[in-house]
Amino acid sequence: MRLRSAFLIVTATAGLFLGATTLQADESATPPKQGRDFCRENPGKCDEARAKRQAFCAENPEKCQEQREQLKAKRAEMQEKCKADPEKCEQMKQEMRQRRDEMKAKCAADPARCEEMKQEMRQKHQGKRGM
To answer: How far is CA 124 from CA 93, 111, 114, in A?
Structure first.
């Protein structure tokens, strides 16, 4: 259960990071759905991702623990910022939703380009995620 929570946090943070980076590329892919919704629709992909993460953590326990700690710290920091300024936090969420909707429209218009950008971003960030 603890590993599952850590995996979901890692997945969510990676999704946010990749989504934000992808959005900066202007023509890019729609960020994947987060957590349970994505896993409900793509059980094979989630199982594969879990297996990869478990294998990575088994081979690199120190790095895995370091990543967990970094995610916890970033999450706590973001929660504090949202507590201090809920309006700004809500505004940021709205902006992300708007950008996500724009990306969905771009992907609907050109699915081949969308898939190409997804692959490029996955390759670019594969080393950064440690997998």
So the answer is: 25, 20, 15
What predicted TM-score, i.e. pTM, was given to this entire model?
0.50
**Are the CB atoms for 114 and 106 separated by under 8 Å?**
yes
Residue 24: pLDDT band with limits 50, 70, 90: very low
Half-sphere exposure of 70 (CA within 13 A, CB side): 10
Of 23, 11, 15, the C-alpha closest to 100 is 23
The region that residue 97 occupies, defined by phi over 0 for left and psi between -120 and 50 for alpha, beta otherwise, is: alpha
Task: Sort residue 32 into left (φ over 0), alpha (ψ -120 to 50) or beta.
Answer: beta
Cβ-contact 25, 117 below 8 angstroms = yes
The whole-angstrom separation of Cα 88 and Cα 66 is 29
- If one counts every other C-beta atom within 10 angstroms of the C-beta of residue 31, the result is 21
User: What is the radius of gyration, based on Cα positions, of the chain?
Assistant: 16
Task: Look up tokens 């946010």; give the residue.
Answer: 16
